[in-house]
Design brief:
357 residues; alpha+beta; Aminopeptidase; 13 strands
Length: 357
Amino acid sequence: MYRLYTLCQSDEWLQIIQQMPEYDFYDTPEYHQLDTHGDALLFVYEQDETTVCLPMILREIPGTHFKDVTSVYGYAGPLISNPQMTSTVASDFRANLNAFFQKEKVVSVFSRLDPLKEQQTELLEGLGNTCLLNQTVTLDLTLSQEEQWKMYSTSLRRQLRRIADKGIKCEVASSTTEWLTFAELYDASMKRRNANPHYFFPPTYFLHLRKACAFETLLLVSRYRGEIIAGGVFTMCNGTMQYHLGAVKSDYVTFSPLKQIVDEARRIGYSKGMRIFHLGGGYGGEENSLFAFKSRFSPLRKEFRVWKYCTNEEAYAQLIEAEKGAQNKADKETENGTEHGTETFTERSYFPLYRFI
């Protein structure tokens, strides 16, 4: 049988995931507290001496008695205490997970997976699809500083020297004021890019990250003539450093200060004994300018996948039809209507579709 843990049982939740050799800060109850889209849960299945767990966000579907499951912002998915036992416990883990979904009337599941956890696809085999979106960039911090520097592209090494020559200084930020300044910088940067709403966070999000206890957070800022012109938030947990968020003030984008920030983060991660520095991928998992920026730091890649699972196809179809009907009605009641273009709902890749319409 499976067990469930809520945020009210944060101590037990944390103790369980710390048994997992590959756990990261994304899996902690402390990080799940920052998600306000539903109820954070830790699903736990045990067989003999092996534990499999899945952190998740369980959401109500408004106007229905159904629910769906999603993941926190970042890299999530299942964890296993003994990766060598994956094939032995996977089928029973999946059966128990399906029993939970049925009991809770879960219609669909969407989760970003963690490129650093190679057993996730095997654990989820047969439960919908794990779709390859793109690649992410990693740095091997077990190498010497000199070897890490050699993995940088020639153009990056040249740019880092030019950034230093401009008098731009990178430093660790510690005060509340600095964290809130970065929050404003980040918000402005996302607005400038017309980013998806899930990339935006309130100021309290940054302050909670700053005070985290289950993992270490690091804010690095670049200053030019005393002004903060860029910043980056990094986490360190269980031997892994993650590049979480970054932003540059619009007037200084051409200065490329984030390159200096990531380079300094690498040095700090190395000094603190981190084994891997995961820079992540591009916006929305695509190969874009952000991915190109990160790829200059290392040729090492990991596969980024998402998990899509329709657990109740009949209910899923009904929810889509209900949302389409509601949208069409709203369009008719609006004088100018709403233009959806030539793309049909079934052609969209968004999942679950009823939350897009």
